[in-house]
């Protein structure tokens, strides 16, 4: 019926049976609505795994629609919603497994409490006496059998052995009831516990019954749940490892850039230091040349003074005398330039 209903929904739409009034308030359901089962969209819904089993979870309260699942798989937002749905499914499955593991622990405790049965109660005094007499007879007969066998009396030895067997049967009859009870308790105790689904099994059971259990809904369902949890945890570990490797790679790149900046800074510092040293050497050479030129000027001036002194001071007196005559000539020229009329009158007279 569910398959036929799903087929009709696909062909005619989910609102095929609604009246006109109901269609007015009807809203088309999308895969990202809260009413839609995200577990069914991304993987499986645990409510579908244990139908008609001891672990039946009942029907899922949310919508399971193959058309919505198909639209989800084709949606451009598919990859963005998968981690969210898987995380929610993982939480739900972990709760299921925690409840199951509690049942498994209780089952182990039950099996552990079923210890070996207590030893049978001691025999009564009468049976103990009978047992001692039988054991003594058996011992004497075995000694006689051994003696007859050494003497080569085989027939007689075989006859005594038959008596020994009869006495052993009587001895076993005295303790047989208690041994039967121990055997029955031991057989009842041969139980095992399935670690996957928590079911009790008969140890060393027939292969058909074991195969039937392994392929049953409860065992398969809990196997899917446990496999998904392990897969989800492994994917989280892989993502964390990838993120850690990416973080370490970024740190290595940042460290390399820092070292490169330090190298460039050191190279610029050395270059600046070399430029300063070259400028300092140039300034030093320039200053040294200036001092050398100044010393040369002083040396030439000193040599000139020495030559003037050797000439008897003529050069000095000539410059001084020339300086005085030059002064009178400049004064005379200045006077002439100031009184041109006077000089003209003198020329005309």
Write structural notes for this entry.
With 349 residues, this protein is an all-alpha fold. It has a domain at 189-267. It has 11 helices and 2 strands. The protein has a two-stranded antiparallel ribbon with strand order 1-2. β1 and β2 (200-202) form a beta hairpin. The model is unreliable at 178-187, 314-324 and 337-349 (pLDDT under 50). This is Luc7-like protein 3. Residues 337-349 have a biased composition (Basic residues). InterPro entries: Luc7-rel. Keywords: Coiled coil. Residues 124-151 form a coiled coil.
Features:
mainly alpha; 11 helices; two-stranded antiparallel ribbon; 349 residues; disordered C terminus
Average pLDDT taken over every residue: 76
Overall morphology? elongated
Strand order of the largest sheet: 1-2
What is the radius of gyration?
62 Å
Question: Low-confidence parts, pLDDT < 50 over ≥5 residues?
Answer: 178-187, 314-324, 337-349
Distance between the termini: 163 Å
Strand content: under 5%
Largest sheet: 2 strands, antiparallel
Give the class from helix and strand content and strand pairing.
mainly alpha
The total of helices stands at: 11
Element-by-element helix/strand order: HHHHHHHEEHHHH
Number of strands: 2
Helix content: over 70%
Please outline what is shown here.
The chain has 11 helices and 2 strands.
Describe the protein's topology.
Layout: H1 2-12, H2 20-24, H3 38-42, H4 66-74, H5 78-113, H6 125-151, H7 154-188, E1 191-193, E2 200-202, H8 207-214, H9 217-310, H10 314-338, H11 340-348
Antiparallel strand pairs: 1-2
Helix pairs in contact: 5-9, 6-7
């Amino acid at each position: 019926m569910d398959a036929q209903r799903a087929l009709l929904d696909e062909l005619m739409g989910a609102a095929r049976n609604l009246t006109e009034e109901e269609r007015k308030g009807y809203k088309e359901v999308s895969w990202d609505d809260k009413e839609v089962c995200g577990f069914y969209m991304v993987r499986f819904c645990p409510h579908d795994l244990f139908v008609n089993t001891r672990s039946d979870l009942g029907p899922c309260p949310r919508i399971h629609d193959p058309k919505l699942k198909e639209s989800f798989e084709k949606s451009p937002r598919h990859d963005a919603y998968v981690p969210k749905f898987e995380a929610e499914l993982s939480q739900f499955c972990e709760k299921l497994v925690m409840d199951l593991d509690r049942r498994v622990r209780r089952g182990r405790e039950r099996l552990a409490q079923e210890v070996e049965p207590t030893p049978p109660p001691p025999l009564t005094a009468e049976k103990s006496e009978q047992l001692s007499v039988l054991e003594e007879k058996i011992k004497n007969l075995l000694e006689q059998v051994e003696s007859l066998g050494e003497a080569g009396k085989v027939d007689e030895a075989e006859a005594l052995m038959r008596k020994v067997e009869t006495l052993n049967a009587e001895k076993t009859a005295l303790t047989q009831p208690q041994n039967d009870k121990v055997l029955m308790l031991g057989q009842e105790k041969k139980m095992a516990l399935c670690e996957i689904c928590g079911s009790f099994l008969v140890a060393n059971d027939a292969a058909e019954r074991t195969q039937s259990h392994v392929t049953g809904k409860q065992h398969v369902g809990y196997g899917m749940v446990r496999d998904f949890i392990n897969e989800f945890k492994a994917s989280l570990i892989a993502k964390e490892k990838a993120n850690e490797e990416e973080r370490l790679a970024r740190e290595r790149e940042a460290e390399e850039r820092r070292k490169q900046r330090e190298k460039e800074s050191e190279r610029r510092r050395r270059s600046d230091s070399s430029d300063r040293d070259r400028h300092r050497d140039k300034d030093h050479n320039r200053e040294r040349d200036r001092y050398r030129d100044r010393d040369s000027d002083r040396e030439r001036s000193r040599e000139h003074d020495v030559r003037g002194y050797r000439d008897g001071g003529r050069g000095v007196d000539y410059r001084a005398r020339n300086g005085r005559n030059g002064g009178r000539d400049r004064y005379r020229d200045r006077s002439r330039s100031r009184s041109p009329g006077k000089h003209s009158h003198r020329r005309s007279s």
